[in-house]
């Protein structure tokens, strides 16, 4: 069958898909790379902090705007913090702790003790 010029220009040939792998298998393979593993673990810690901020805010029945006012920032910045898309320095962490009437504890532990 002859194809039209439009079909040849706008409809490129489709390559067959590679066999799909599940996410756990993909991550297991990627974690063998030391640099990827380091970044993956760091991002996990960032998400843990984000989750704690979200939980504290909800426990106190505060809106993101309320927390933003206490921190002297914007609601959209609080949303980024809670989504784990904001790198937080110690100053910001202390501000967040203070906004919730909490102390901030930073502790260095052996890598063997990390859950």
Task: Explain how this protein is built.
This protein has helices spanning 5-10, 23-30, 34-59, 64-71, 75-82, 90-99. The radius of gyration is 23 Å and the shape is flat. The longest helix is centred in the middle third of the chain and has 26 residues, at 34-59. α4 crosses α5 (75-82). The model has no long low-confidence stretch (mean pLDDT 87). The protein has 115 residues and is an all-alpha fold. The chain contains six helices and no strands. The protein has a single domain, classed as 434 Repressor (Amino-terminal Domain) (Orthogonal Bundle).
In short:
The protein is mainly alpha-helical. It has a single domain, classed as Orthogonal Bundle (434 Repressor (Amino-terminal Domain)).
The number of E-state strands comes to 0
- Estimated share of beta-strand residues: under 5%
Radius of gyration: 23 Å
| CATH second-level architecture | Orthogonal Bundle
**Class from helix and strand fractions:** mainly alpha
Q: What's the overall average pLDDT, rounded?
A: 87
Order of helices and strands: HHHHHH
CATH homologous superfamily caption: lambda repressor-like DNA-binding domains
Reported by name, the CATH topology is: 434 Repressor (Amino-terminal Domain)
Count the domains: 1
The CATH top-level class label: Mainly Alpha
Note the gap between the termini.
61 Å
| Largest β sheet strand count, sense and barrel closure | none
Helix fraction by DSSP (H/I, runs of at least 4): 55-70%
Shape: flat
Low-confidence stretches: none
Number of helices: 6
